[in-house]
Amino acid sequence: MEGDVEMAAEEEGAALELDDMKKRLKEMEDEAAALREMQAKVEQEMGAVQDPAAAAASQTNREEVDSRSVFVGNVDYSCTPEEVQQHFQSCGTVNRVTIRTNKYGQPKGYAYVEFLEPEAVEQAIHLNESELHGRQLKVSAKRTNVPGMKQFRPRRSNPYMGFRSRTPYMPAPYLYSPYGYGKVPRFRVPMRYSPYF
Predict the structure, then answer these.
(1) Digit-coded pLDDT (tens) for 74-86
(2) Which is the most buried residue in 10, 58, 110, 182, by most CB within 10 A?
(3) Percent with pLDDT over 70 in the chain
(4) Which helix (H) or strand (E) holds 91?
């Protein structure tokens, strides 16, 4: 009789443990579902999951914004966006001024000015070679970058290095010297100095 009581107690303890494990599993599944929902929401906001129609729409939107913008080169490093905006205020309503900076936060020396009207771009181009902070500005219409259209520039050869071809090295066939082993003629062909050979 006592053995039956102990087995019943063990079975009851195992059942409680099993229920506890099922409860924890359910909580973990709920948490995973919530994480998946949050991930989908973030991806949707960030635009990571884009269909081709949305990508085409964003490309046309970018082209439309670029048609209202100008590139301003040779901008003084101490220039602020407000000063650039005041300089181009006569052309039309300035929507945004972007002065590009490097990874340390220092300006690169050029800026983009976006207008509200596309007609302002023509007037802004007339400000080419005008002065701001004592520097002549280079103003041109902003071009739209097309992804994957980077111009190919072949590698230039270094005149100080020896000629290196892309074909694997093949030794020349051995020719016997007419002067005998180890003997070389007294005349030498003058060649350019190369410290690598």
Answers:
(1) 999 999 999 999 9
(2) 110
(3) 65
(4) none
Burial class (CB in 10 A: 0-12, 13-18, 19+), 69: buried
DSSP letter string over 176-189? --TT-TT---S---
Read off the pLDDT of each residue in 6-14 and give the average, rounded to a whole number: 71
Q: Which value, in Å, is the radius of gyration of the alpha carbons in the chain?
A: 36
97 close to 111: Cβ distance less than 8 angstroms: yes
Q: Name the pairing type of β-strands 138-141 and 107-115.
A: unpaired
Q: CA 112 to CA 72: how far, in whole Å?
A: 6
pLDDT tens per residue, range 110-125: 999 999 999 999 999 9
Strand (E) positions, 1-81? 69-73
Cβ atoms 132, 84 nearer than 8 A? yes
